[in-house]
């Protein structure tokens, strides 16, 4: 499969959860608390896409399939898309787009501060994801895009902190994130650094 068809397939797979959410919304399929459904599902997919983005480099090394690198940008942008949807739904349903209420929530609830900080770290990555920005920033581009590491840790912390009685799902995501980040600490022959 060529890189263009592969990217097309990945794009369709990445947008499918959003389409499912829209269809459920139009058909009253979001249950008794639509706000919670939108927030929960968008947040889950933001973290899943973030982990898939981090999985690209290990897969490239393990399979020697260089074409998979062409999917990393799509996965990263969709992670930011779902994270932005998560933040927008929180802003709409819970604080009615009032900055003062957001500031109050950030101060009173550490898990919201962690999630918001993760989104802020992802923002420059989304803005500079293009080839043009990569050429413009040169070596600094790779350094900047390592912000994905603290963003992932903060996203996992955001999920763990808000989990109440059952933290099993949060732990699964956290362990996967820890493994993907730990892989990057292993010295690799001929590597100039990796994302």
TrEMBL record:
Keywords: Cell membrane, Electron transport, Flavoprotein, FMN, Heme, Iron, Membrane, Metal-binding, Transmembrane, Transmembrane helix, Transport. Binds 1 heme b (iron(II)-protoporphyrin IX) group per subunit. The chain crosses the membrane at residues 7-25, 45-62, 74-97, 109-127, 147-164, 170-186. Signal peptide: none annotated. GO terms for molecular function: electron transfer activity; FMN binding; heme binding; metal ion binding; oxidoreductase activity, acting on diphenols and related substances as donors. Pfam families: Ferric_reduct. It is found in: Cell membrane; Membrane. The keyword Transmembrane helix applies. Its main location: membrane. GO terms for cellular component: plasma membrane. Residues 43-156 form the Ferric oxidoreductase domain. GO terms for biological process: protein repair. It is a multi-pass membrane protein. InterPro entries: Fe3_Rdtase_TM_dom (IPR013130), MsrQ-like (IPR022837). Its cofactor is heme b; FMN. Belongs to the MsrQ family. Part of the MsrPQ system that repairs oxidized periplasmic proteins containing methionine sulfoxide residues (Met-O), using respiratory chain electrons. Thus protects these proteins from oxidative-stress damage caused by reactive species of oxygen and chlorine generated by the host defense mechanisms. MsrPQ is essential for the maintenance of envelope integrity under bleach stress, rescuing a wide series of structurally unrelated periplasmic proteins from methionine oxidation. PANTHER family: PROTEIN-METHIONINE-SULFOXIDE REDUCTASE HEME-BINDING SUBUNIT MSRQ. Heterodimer of a catalytic subunit (MsrP) and a heme-binding subunit (MsrQ). This is Protein-methionine-sulfoxide reductase heme-binding subunit MsrQ. It comes from Sediminihaliea albiluteola.
